[in-house]
Amino acid sequence: MISIKVPPLGESIVEATIAKWLKQPGESVAQGETLVELETDKITVEVPAFKSGVLAKHLKNEGDVVKVDEVLGEMDASAVPAGVTGEATPANAGTATQPTEAGGKKTGAGAPPKGEAKKPGAKSEQPVAAQKEAKTSPAVRRIAAEESVDVTQVAGTGRDGRVTKPDMVVHLDDRKDGSAGVASSASGGGPPPMKQSTATSLGAQHHSAAPANASTLSSGERETREKMSTRRRRIAEHLLESQHSTAHLTTFNEVDMSAVQAVRDRLKEKIEKEHEVKLTFMPFFVKAASMALKTIPVVNAQVEGDTVVYKHYVNMGVAVASDQGLVVPVIKDADRKGMLDVSRDISAIAKRAREGKLTMDDLTGGTFTITNGGVFGSLVSTPIINYPQVGILGLHKIQDRPVAQNGQVVIRPMMYIALSYDHRIVDGQQAVLFLVRVKELIEDPAAMLVE
Q1: CATH numbers and ranges of domains, the chain
Q2: 50, 2 in Cβ contact below 8 A?
Q3: CA atoms of 182 and 307, how far apart (whole Å)
Q4: Is the pLDDT of residue 265 over 80?
Q5: Which pTM does this prediction carry?
Q6: Distance between CA atoms of 78 and 59, rounded to whole angstroms?
Q7: Contact 373/381 with Cβ under 8 angstroms?
Q8: What is the β-pairing status of strands 325-327 and 320-322?
Q9: What average pLDDT does the segment 211-224 reach?
């Protein structure tokens, strides 16, 4: 027997939660195939099979908290996996282990069902379907397994048609609504089966229940209790630690985005064509913040006991929304990179975040953070410091507003920006000067090229 153990999870991470067993006891496993997904406070870790064989048993269940090097289950490498043998003989064809679907139904490992043996176009459709399924995040795959949903049949609204968690929720809601009439007529108007409560709880996370629907729910379905995941607990602890360990204060300013918009509109098509990089507003703010941090270095510092540690480099954290929640991957040495390099790095880390493929190196070492609530429509906010950093820059929605210029009222695309800072070491004057410097650079982007 081969023991399946919790692999090293990264610096300072000693435990994880079993998110999903992808293989069940008795199922055949190919070398390199993922057996189980572990969720840490930062990333999702996939545990692969190091040899082909058959999964013998689970020693830990989904939801269990496990530590590094702890045994999760056992594999029998001496057993011949069904998918490895050339052809099943008549003697063992009936007894061969059959893979099970998420719903618990067994599927035959041999010939396809009658009438589907040689469908035209089946060969060309299979790789496309497999490719679509491979692009999904662990959260989407988990819902698909729990609800017996074929991901390839779900309309994706993410980048390149990728299926996101909200897409799955909408699909489940539509499926539930479509089956409600059938279930009602079949059961004589009785209550829906309890299996549907999972879809209801998933939908409740993203949609407010309409009063008409709420009245039809039984008392047991109007509330759901869900244990916090390891990551959610860690995020909660980290936010409280930031609030309790810092002298939290926020200052605001507003920026005229006309100049940056003009530069972006003029160059974005050319840059995308020549460098295959989408030019967004974020690289401008990363560059401006990096330069402002050089001017006001205490905002890029860190408190260790009674010592202030000044960082002579800028590792810029950029908050990214993913299916697993908000993560803050880091652009290393952002102060030494040009606008195009920063754009490439942002695109790369955002893609890895959406696909759940961020590494520990992506998430550690940050010295300052930028968060953009504007992409969700936020007009103004007070971001929480990403402790132990001492500053975080909040960006917001660009909105046409009347402003006074040269004694006249004109309409300009304006954005509120906010700096939350640790008042223990950052004075109010320094915080204001930092924001003013960011404002100056964004309103005159040419200055970023010559300084």
Answers
A1: 139-217 (no CATH), 231-450 (3.30.559.10)
A2: yes
A3: 68
A4: yes
A5: 0.62
A6: 19
A7: yes
A8: antiparallel
A9: 61
Residues whose CB is less than 8 angstroms from the CB of residue 262 and which lie 6 or more positions away in sequence, other chains included: none
Helix 138-147 and helix 196-204: axis angle, to 10°? 150
Please name which of 166, 174, 227 lies closest in space to residue 196, comparing C-alpha atoms: 174
**Rama region for 151: left / alpha / beta (φ>0; ψ in -120 to 50; rest):** alpha
- Strands 399-405 vs 330-331: parallel, antiparallel or unpaired: unpaired
- Name the strand (E) or helix (H) holding 204: helix 196-204
CB 403 within 8 A of CB 419: no
Give the C-alpha separation, 440 to 433, whole Å: 10
Torsion of CA 404, 406, 409, 412, to 10 degrees: -70
pLDDT above 60 for 211: no
Active site residue 335: no
CA distance linking residue 277 with residue 343, whole number of Å: 7
- Give yes or no: 312 in active site: no
Q: How far is 180 from 182, CA to CA, in rounded Å?
A: 5
Q: Which of 174, 177, 427, 444 is catalytic?
A: 427
Q: Decide the pairing of beta strands 391-395 and 368-372.
A: parallel
DSSP 22: S
Over residues 429-442, the mean pLDDT reads: 97
Mean pLDDT of 169-198: 50
419 C-beta neighbours (distance < 10 Å), count: 26
Task: Tell me what pLDDT residue 119 has.
Answer: 45
Q: What's the length of the chain?
A: 451
Burial 280-295 (b: 16+ CB within 10 A, else e): bbbbbbbbbbbbbbee
What value, to the nearest 5°, has the Cα angle with vertex 39 and ends 36 and 43? 115
Helix (H) or strand (E) holding 414: strand 408-422
Q: Say if residues 417 and 254 touch (Cβ distance below 8 Å).
A: yes
